[in-house]
Every structure is written in structure tokens, then in C-alpha cells.
């Protein structure tokens, strides 16, 4: 594993800051002291954007500021890689802004994955039941679907 460049480090922390504010504490650690401990948080795309992997879920979920809970009937659809519709939305954290990074939970508070809010909390109350409210980014079903590439 190679060390991150300054630009890649900045992109990583920008992406993570969408999911937790406690990350600001990590900026106190010098870059040369940050090492890999065996958990891949994500990868950089060819366009130098950082994409979170599902392996980061256990570390980010407890600190997530914005959360979405899905109904039991919509869990399987999300775990197959589909977006969350208004009809499958159980609850959403108040004051969630549009395009805010969210952690997706089951109604039993089990973290299922990551997403991006397609609508704000207020817009979710008014939209059609078939409208997309959370864009899918990663889910725990990827452990099975992409087990050969999750390293």
C-alpha cells in the first residue's frame, strides 16, 4: 500500500467529514504518523474522487450525524444495490440537507450501508411514494457481491 499524496489525503478527509465531525480530531495527527491498520476505508477513482468502501461502515456508523432508517420491506432492495424510495423510508434525521452523506440503518438499528440524501428532510415529507429519497453508495451486501475486490 502506497502513502497518500497531499491531494489524496485532502480528498479522503473531505469525504469522511460528510459522515462524521469527529474526524477533525484526526487532523492533529501528522500525515507521516498515519498508517494502514488493515482496514480499507475506500479508494480513489481515476478522476481523483474518493469512494468509500463498505469496510468503513463499522468505524463511521457510531459517529454518523445524519441517519436514515429503512422499513423491513425495503432492506433487501437496498442490500441488492438499489436506491431507497420514499415508500421504504422509515425515519430520517431532522435537518438532513439534500446531498448530505447518510448512514443507512434497518429499523432494528443495524447499520446497512452508506448513501446520499436525494431530498432534504422537509422535501421527504411531501414527495411521491415512488420518489428516490436516498441514493445508494455502498451496502453490506457488497461483501458477497464483490468479495474478491474488497481487500
Task: Describe this protein's structure.
- 26% of the residues are buried.
- The strands form two sheets. Strands 4-8-7-6-3-5 form a six-stranded mixed beta sheet. A two-stranded antiparallel ribbon has the order 1-2.
- The termini are close together.
- The model has no long low-confidence stretch (mean pLDDT 84).
- A hairpin with a 5-residue loop joins strand 1 (42-44) and strand 2 (50-52).
- It has five helices and eight strands.
- With 151 residues, it is α+β, with helices and mostly antiparallel strands.
Primary descriptors:
alpha+beta; single chain; 6-stranded mixed sheet; two-stranded antiparallel ribbon; globular; 23% helix; 151 residues
Average pLDDT level: 84
User: Distance N terminus to C terminus?
Assistant: 11 Å
Largest sheet, in brief, is: 6 strands, mixed
Order of strands across the widest beta sheet?
A: 4-8-7-6-3-5
Instruction: Classify the helix fraction into a percent range.
Output: 10-25%
β-sheet strand percentage: 15-25%
Q: How many beta-strand runs? A: 8
Give the overall silhouette: globular
* Elements, N to C (H/E): HEEHEHEEEEHEH
Structural class call reads alpha+beta
Query: Which value, in Å, is the CA radius of gyration?
Result: 16 Å
Uncertain spans = none
Total of helices: 5
Annotate the secondary structure layout:
Layout: H1 6-17, E1 42-44, E2 50-52, H2 57-60, E3 67-70, H3 72-79, E4 84-85, E5 89-92, E6 101-106, E7 111-117, H4 121-126, E8 132-139, H5 142-145
Parallel strand pairs: 3-6
Antiparallel strand pairs: 1-2, 3-5, 4-8, 6-7, 7-8
Amino acid at each position: 500500500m502506497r502513502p497518500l499524496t497531499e491531494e489524496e489525503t485532502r480528498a479522503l478527509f473531505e469525504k469522511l467529514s460528510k459522515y462524521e465531525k469527529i474526524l477533525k480530531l484526526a487532523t492533529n495527527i501528522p500525515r507521516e504518523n498515519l498508517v494502514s491498520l488493515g482496514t480499507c476505508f475506500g479508494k480513489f477513482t481515476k478522476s481523483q474522487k474518493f469512494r468509500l468502501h463498505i469496510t468503513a461502515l463499522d468505524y463511521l456508523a457510531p459517529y454518523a450525524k445524519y441517519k436514515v432508517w429503512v422499513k423491513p420491506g425495503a432492506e433487501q432492495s437496498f442490500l441488492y444495490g438499489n436506491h431507497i424510495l420514499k415508500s421504504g423510508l422509515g425515519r430520517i434525521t431532522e435537518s438532513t440537507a439534500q446531498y448530505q452523506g447518510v448512514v443507512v440503518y434497518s429499523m432494528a438499528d443495524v447499520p446497512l450501508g452508506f448513501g446520499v440524501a436525494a431530498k432534504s428532510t422537509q422535501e421527504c415529507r411531501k414527495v411521491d411514494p415512488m420518489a428516490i429519497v436516498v441514493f445508494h453508495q455502498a451496502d453490506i451486501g457488497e461483501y458477497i457481491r464483490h468479495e474478491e475486490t474488497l481487500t
